[in-house]
Write a structure and sequence with these properties.
Blueprint (H helix, E strand, L loop, with lengths): L26 E2 L2 E5 L4 H16 L1 H4 L18 H17 L1 H10 L2 E5 L10 E2 L7 E5 L2 H5 L2 H22 L12 E2 L8 E2 H23 L20 H15 L4 H11 L7
Parallel strand pairs: 2-3, 3-5
Antiparallel strand pairs: 1-2, 4-5, 6-7
Helix pairs in contact: 3-4, 3-6, 6-7, 7-8, 7-9
Length: about 270
């Protein structure tokens, strides 16, 4: 269901513009990439993310590498990291072609920035203020190391983009406005219910990716019953179950949101 929610999306999404002309000529698995230049939109979103990461630094266990810079690096992405990103995207395409097609329709650009811009606080993210972009440090995929973990991170960010796009298309997740904040095992800093909804869909999709990769006979796939993806080192199964518990108990879900949750969780035998 979720994969079919975006018919007509090109009519409502503004085109993502890149200031660097090289982006039009260079792509990672068909997705253009932009070496983060002084694009106002990139500059703005990076500063916003740094501010939020700084506020949550104690909880997330992030480390700093000096003060954040106000300028945006124009250095090229590390070639080995680009290759690792290509491999991760190709793996998603091989094991879950429907999801890959969704990603290709939504992700308009991969933005690579120098880690000093965020002082090492943030390595990969999406933001609704720069819709259609996944932003990551120049060496993120290389430093992440493992293929399936990199694929999972790209899937994670693309799912946030998808859910944001669903809202742009007019669907609603809650029957009324909510203001309460909630803690889960995945994120111990209090988050709104919309964030918990994102957590459930992201974690369920990650679990399904691991199952599909294992069924496809790929090597070095993390075991679903032992994988710990979050910043706090909890089991994926525990994080998904806890986020799902909070969501079903606290959120006034619309029929559409209920169907989305059921569609992603029902594919996972361990969570039915």
């Amino acid at each position: 269901m979720l994969l079919n929610a975006l018919e007509g999306l090109p009519h409502v999404l503004a085109e993502v513009r890149h200031s660097d002309e090289r982006a039009a000529r260079t792509a990672v698995d068909g997705i253009p990439f932009d070496i983060a230049s002084n694009s106002p939109s990139v500059h703005s979103v990076l500063r916003q993310v740094v501010a939020r990461a700084t506020a949550n630094a104690g909880d997330r266990g992030v480390h700093t590498r000096g003060p954040a810079r106000n300028d945006v690096s124009v250095e090229t992405a590390d070639a080995a990291s680009l290759d690792a990103t290509r491999q991760a995207l190709a793996t998603i395409r091989a094991v879950w072609p429907e999801l890959y097609a969704e990603m290709r329709s939504l992700i308009r650009v991969l933005v690579f920035f120098d880690e000093s811009v965020t002082a090492g606080r943030v390595t990969i993210f999406t933001d609704s203020s720069y819709h259609g972009a996944i932003l990551q440090t120049r060496r993120f995929a290389l430093e992440r190391g493992a293929l399936h973990e990199t694929a999972g991170d790209l899937l994670h960010e693309a799912t946030h983009t998808h859910l944001n796009a669903v809202l742009l298309c007019g669907e609603q997740f809650f029957t009324r406005r909510t203001t309460s904040l909630h803690v889960t095992t995945f994120r111990s800093d209090p988050r709104p219910l919309s964030s918990v909804f994102h957590q459930v869909v992201v974690l369920a999709r990650l679990a399904e990716y691991l199952l599909r990769a294992e069924e496809a006979g790929l090597t070095d796939v993390p075991r679903l019953d032992t994988y710990r993806p979050g910043p706090r080192g909890r089991l994926l199964s525990d994080e998904l179950n806890d986020s799902l518990r909070v969501l079903l108990k606290e959120a006034p879900l619309t029929d559409y949101a209920t169907e989305v949750v059921e569609s992603v969780v029902d594919r996972l035998p361990a969570f039915r």
